[in-house]
Amino acid sequence: MLLYIYIIAITAEAMSGALAAGRRNMDMFGVAFVAFITALGGGTVRDMLLGNYPVTWTQHPMYIHITILAGLFTMVVARYMHRLHSIFLVLDAMGLIAFTVIGCNVALKLEYSTTVVIMAGITTGIFGGILRDLLCNRTPMVLRKELYASVSLLVAILYLCLRHWGVSHDINLLASFGFGLTLRLAAIRWRWTLPVFTYAPGRWS
Fold first, then answer.
1. Nearest-angstrom CA–CA distance, 24 and 2
2. pLDDT of amino acid 195
3. 133: which of 59, 70, 138, 147 fits an S-S bond (Cβ 3.0–4.6 Å)?
4. CA quadruple 120, 121, 125, 126: dihedral positive or negative?
5. Burial call 48-72: b when 16+ CB within 10 Å, e when fewer
6. Preceding omega of 61 cis (within 30 degrees of 0)
7. How far is Cα 158 from Cα 28, in angstroms, rounded to an integer?
């Protein structure tokens, strides 16, 4: 089940990357590259940080084909994308949770400490979006809008707690997805955010 969700997630993330590239008037290569980086960048950064070689997508060329084709396909259907906004929000939330759980599992197999496992999950979940926004010359949205990175953090903690308590893998996945999806969509609906830090020296001079 997690594999199918992962494929859906990288497709949705690739399309979001293509749309971001389109807003910056990039050519076809730029669109395809940003789509690829958005979808697979989080896992790549995670593998490099954990020393997990070879990097995952190098062993699964299908992931490259899926993300690039999804990016190019977005160019064709871009005029209709606004009608699919709600669906994209759900798919993006599912992708965040799937990436987080996968990142945790990779670090667990490498026998890292709990703190590193959580950070591996968060990195996998959010870093593709960070790289997308940096390539498109934007402040990373995952760090400044509705709860996103914090959802990844809480999902990682819940997943590890349920695993520690001996909850079966399937039930753990359902609980983690249910919790993460509900929290993320609620944050979008009611615009939940963390406190914002604004540093303006003139305010205190």
1. 33
2. 87
3. 138
4. negative
5. eebebeeebbeeeeebeebbbebbe
6. no
7. 40
As a whole number of angstroms, the distance between CA 98 and CA 79 comes to 28
- Peptide bond before residue 140 is cis, with ω within 30 degrees of 0: no
Residue 81, CA distances (Å) to 19, 25, 85, 91, 157 in order:
9, 17, 7, 14, 34
Q: What is the pTM of this model?
A: 0.92
Q: Cα separation of 37 and 57, whole Å?
A: 11
Provide the token pair at 89.
């929000």
Cα of 157 vs its chain's centroid, Å:
16
In the structure encoding, which two tokens stand for residue 5, read together?
């969700």
Structure tokens that stand for 153 in this block: 């953090």
The per-residue pLDDT for 5 is 84
The pLDDT score that the predictor gives to residue 132 is 94
**114's tokens:** 């709990």
Structure tokens at 136: 């498109």
Three-state secondary-structure class, residue 135 = helix
Question: What is the sign, positive or negative, of the torsion defined by CA atoms of 175, 180, 186, 189?
Answer: negative
d(CA 84, CA 25): 21
Backbone angles phi, psi at 68, to 5 degrees: -70, -45
In which residue ranges of the chain is pLDDT below 70?
A: 204-205
Ordered alpha helix ranges (H), the chain: 2-23, 28-50, 61-77, 85-109, 114-135, 149-164, 169-190
The pair of three-digit structure tokens given for residue 129, joined into one six-digit string: 């979006």
